[in-house]
């Protein structure tokens, strides 16, 4: 297996799982009352958090899960519950309230949870990067997987960074509608994650 194939397949796999275009409605909903600068900061921090969490699990994921006696299915269920809470907040307009200008912690909180994790660094991405790392046997292979992860996260950042263009086009009413739709879709994703986790427990 060539390193070019490893790089391409890893980037494509991560891109499909991360699904930045599908994340845009949620990102716009969570950051709709932020200033452009706060939104850009949130995009950068969310990407860095996702990169850090994914990289950590890529290196030590199996040891961490084994040490804590936590299964991937448990990660799926807990991540699904967290996403469901966020989805309910989107549906009820919780994120419609503007954050105070002197309270940058609002941007930090949203960037870490739920954007950084579990929306970006969720169970699917964690499992995918763990498998990619475990399938390599040389330092060059590990380096290729690392570059693929960096590339995928850079693509995510660029997608979120230019979400402002979409916001300008859709205007306030469109963003409100998109926020409610995002809440509905996110709730479905959450239920799907929990269902897959429960089925995983059943078939173990």
Secondary-structure-based class equals mainly alpha
Number of helices: 8
Number of strands: 0
**Percentage of residues assigned to helices:** over 70%
* Beta-strand content estimate: under 5%
Description:
This protein has helices at residues 3-18, 20-30, 36-68, 72-91, 105-120, 123-134, 139-161, 163-202. The chain is mainly α. It has one domain. Mean pLDDT is 83; it is low at 98-103.
Keywords:
8 helices, 204 residues, mainly alpha, 84% helix
Quick overview:
The protein is mostly helical. It has eight helices and no strands.
What is the topological layout?
Elements: H1 3-18, H2 20-30, H3 36-68, H4 72-91, H5 105-120, H6 123-134, H7 139-161, H8 163-202
Helix pairs in contact: 1-6, 1-7, 2-7, 2-8, 3-5, 3-6, 3-7, 4-5, 4-8
């Amino acid at each position: 297996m060539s390193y070019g194939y490893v790089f391409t397949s890893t980037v494509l796999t991560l891109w499909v799982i991360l699904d930045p275009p599908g994340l845009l409605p949620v990102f716009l909903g969570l950051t709709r009352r932020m200033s452009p600068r706060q939104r850009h900061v949130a995009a950068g921090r969310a990407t860095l958090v996702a990169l850090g969490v994914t990289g950590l699990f890529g290196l030590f994921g199996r040891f961490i899960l084994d040490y804590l006696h936590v299964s991937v299915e448990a990660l799926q269920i807990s991540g699904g519950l967290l996403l469901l809470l966020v989805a309910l907040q989107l549906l009820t307009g919780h994120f419609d309230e503007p954050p105070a200008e002197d309270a940058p912690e609002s941007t930090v909180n949203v960037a870490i949870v739920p954007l950084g994790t579990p929306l970006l660094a969720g169970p699917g991405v964690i499992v995918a990067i763990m498998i990619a790392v475990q399938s390599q046997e040389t330092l060059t292979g590990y380096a290729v997987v690392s570059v693929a992860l960096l590339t995928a996260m850079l693509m995510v950042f660029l997608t979120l960074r230019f979400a402002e263009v979409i916001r300008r086009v859709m205007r306030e009413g469109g963003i409100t509608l998109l926020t409610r739709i995002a809440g509905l879709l996110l709730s479905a994703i959450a239920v799907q994650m929990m269902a897959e986790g429960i089925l995983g427990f059943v078939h173990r």
